[in-house]
Amino acid sequence: MHDIVIYILGVSGLLALVSFLPPLAARFQVPYTVLLAAVGVALGGVIQTFAGEPGSGPFHDFLNSLAELDISSEVLLHVFLPVLLFETALAVDVRRLFDDIGPILLLAVVAVFVCTFAVGFALNLFTSIGLVACLLLGSIVATTDPAAVVGVFRDLGAPRRLTMLVEGEALLNDAAAIALFSLLLGMLTRKADGGAAEAALEFLRDFSGGVLTGWLCGRIACMMVEPVRDQPMAEITLTVALAYLSFVLAEHYVGASGVVAVVTSALVIGSLGRTRISPTTWGALEHVWRQLGFWANSLIFMLTAILVPRLLGSVGWDEVGLVLVVVVAAGVARALVLFGLLPLLSATGLAQRVSHSYKAVMLWGGLRGAVSLTLALAVTENVRIPDRVQSFVAVLVIGFVFVTLFVNGTTLRGLIRLLGLDKLTAVESAMRNRALALSMAGIRERVAEVARTYEVDAAATDVLVTRYEERLQAIDRESQNEAPLRDEDRVTIGLAILVNREEELYYAHFSEGVVSRGVMDMLAGRCARLLDAVKTQGREGYRAFEEPFIAFSPWMRFTSLLQRRFGINRPLARRLSMRFEVLVAVRTVLRELLVFDRTKLSQVLGEDVAFELEGMLVGRLTIVEQALSALKLQYPDYAIVLQSRYVGRAALRLEEADYRALHAESIISQEVLTDLERDLEKRRRAIERLPKLDLRIDVKELVRRVPLFAGLPAERVEGIGTLLRARLALPGEIIVRRGERGDAMFFIASGAVEVLVPNLAEPVKLGSGDFFGEMALLSRQRRNADVRALGYCQLLVLDEKDFRRLVNKDADLRAHIQAVAEARRQPVKPVAAQAQQTAG
Prior knowledge:
By secondary structure, the chain is mainly alpha-helical. The protein folds into five domains: about 5-70, no CATH class; about 75-420, Up-down Bundle (Na+/H+ antiporter like fold); about 425-485; about 490-660, no CATH class; about 700-835, Jelly Rolls. Its main location: membrane. It is a multi-pass membrane protein. One of its GO terms (biological process) is sodium ion import across plasma membrane. This is Sodium:proton antiporter.
């Protein structure tokens, strides 16, 4: 049989076989990986027995094709491993990963070294195999396989945090263990170790080089996806190419860990991809990668498990004893990390506390799988490693993997049930009953409506409606017996629901094309920080979050400084444009959350909690609307442009959906659809360009707004305008500081400021037409108060030299300024002082 036919028959036959295994695993309630290993070993035994025997037919040829398949570890590592790692990392919620990054890194990196050295030194006591070979075996068995464990967790409804800890550990410890394996393999084949310090530096170089390479590849892929946006096949293909390119570039060109690079690039795509890749493609991409991951995991397991009968052909009791040594050493090492080092990490405040039941499940659930088998196969194929070491590694790794699968894997479900981790907490149970009652009531009404629509007999309908009523009554009885939730618990639950719902709504508006990508990135990060504040501080964290978010960032103030001092407008214009769009998006979503709170959360959490949540939402909404109103008042024309841009984005989305519907109904041809979509893309690119914000200020117009200069002849206004310099002050900006030298006075053309005079209970507020800073110029003394902008303020600045020139030319103006200054110097009562005194 031709080689290519052998490969096609063998691989396609295995795929057909594994397609029947998931339903069987569900039927017998065993982890899929355990069943996969059992079938693979059984198939390997059949191949060993019957392959090569005379015969014909598809099954006989299938067995012979598997026997003749030359699948090396290089193929498994370069073809299947990048896909398996990329799929696992892509499915990880990066935000939740960083919530528990302390314990995850401890289990993924520190635990790998502890296991490697524990197993290596334990084996070295019982065998004459060299220490480096024993450590190499330890690094192979240090990798954990999350597939079987997470599958059990999902079946039983295990806590989400426990699932994230196991997924995060398995994801990152594969990278650490394979990097350590490569280092030890090089030491073993070179017959020189170079010292512990050199080995540690090489490990750090490989690991950090892989992180940097993967990050760069992921970021480049995010930029490259822009030209192929809204082309699902191209976008998904780009991610598949990324998995292999990041591996190959790191491994063969950078000289770093390809595994670390693949994991890092997938995490970058997972965290940024939802705003770079078109929303319609993201769901399809996740589905495609789940399918690719299933194929990769299944084929790696099957192809390595088939080799097990041949590799274990000469196993004796000595090897069985050494397998037990590996099992005990690996278990003790894992227990030391979980029950010894992890509590220390929590005690120092670097990680949240992990319960003993979680640690027990993680200890027992440290299953090994496809990666360990593949690395063991790589050792058996390396001609520079002695046959004795090859056999030693292969037998012990296979034995250890199968012990974890068939002992730990088959009993993990019972352990979770024994510890009660499949049961809901009191809070979760109460939430379940309330949500279920709400759902049942709605379903009962809809069932009756469907029956009326289809004219179903009342007798048949009544039976079904009665069942739902009985379920509602049972839920009510259960709710009466449960412990009441504390108000604080209900508020915290409600806030967490609101934050998650807020992020979902932002993504919904992004998918509709209303929110731009840059704003979506900012708002997604903001939701993550807001959720952290809720988790750590509850309602206080939620209340305290919005005002700092709305406040102006240091970068905003820096761009304002550029505009004020050097006349550079563009950076500030861009920041204000982004701010306007963010405020509009937040306001829209907060209004939607108010409806969600009144219609949904009030029924689940109670009217009292919903009312309190509504108050917090209204508080946030008020702050946002105030900031938005200030921008609109300052730049009314620009506000209209931005709002038109919002509506334009939504209109383009609606147009696109309508055109595709017309094509689906065969009203327009593919050629017409393509032409219409081409026109849409041109208009979309035009509307995505951020409109410019004109910050150029007409000084003459501002001079006319100041009552002090009102009524002056046009030529006099023009002369004064040449002396004045326009300045934009941001809300909260300190315009004048107490104690500094007075080198200018200020006229308020629009806006308002507050003067923080020492020993006054309330600040003095000045508005349009007022001026301040004159007293320091007249008295030649330092400023006696701070002046802070209350909103956007357009100021006219008159420096000291021009001030003296102006007042010397205009006697009336000089007299007015001196009169105001003299009145401010007069001792007055505190209440009057608050209305009259201002900063020098």
